[in-house]
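Me: I keep going back and forth on a fold encoding question. No explanation is needed for now; the record alone will do.

Assistant:
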Amino acid sequence: MPRIQADADERLGRVRPARGQRRGIPGCLRAIAIVTVPALTGLLLGSGCTYSFNGSNLPAHVKTVAIPNFSNETLEPGLDQEITTVVIDRFIKDGRLKLASEAKASCRLSGRVVKYENRVNNYAPDESPRDYIVVVTVAVTLRDMVKNRDLWKDDSLTRTSIYVPGAVTGPGSEQDARAYADSALASDMITRTMEPW
């Protein structure tokens, strides 16, 4: 240690640990921490503060979901069926809600494809397209069929995907980018439906 630093430490009353010695919480503070942490934990538990996690923000009676075919308000044929299929598959894979017919389901996830775009995203210096962006927007509602009320609603749930034609990694076509955007929309619907935050 340089002599100037050692002099400053000495004047300020600082004690440096010997080489190889650990710094840590002094013994008296460690004892306080050992006593305080369990005491605070006991106080919080005994005060009636409870927290429970059931893995969902849905009402307890919602156990099944109906997912009718999305409608398509765009000029892109088949997009409604693609999204419906991806959403159903994602709910099956998630497994926290079981699929049911509309007559038997405790909630219904319905949607409309309201916007579809495939346009140039960036240009190269020679003004040729460098990459493209696919934009898919849906209007979605999750309705509690037992209580006859909306659990959540989003009129402009939008996801995008950028692709470079012929790319080896990442989306390399409009269809690849569209599939990625559809999958992201389905993930968002699961999150909005099932996550407690």
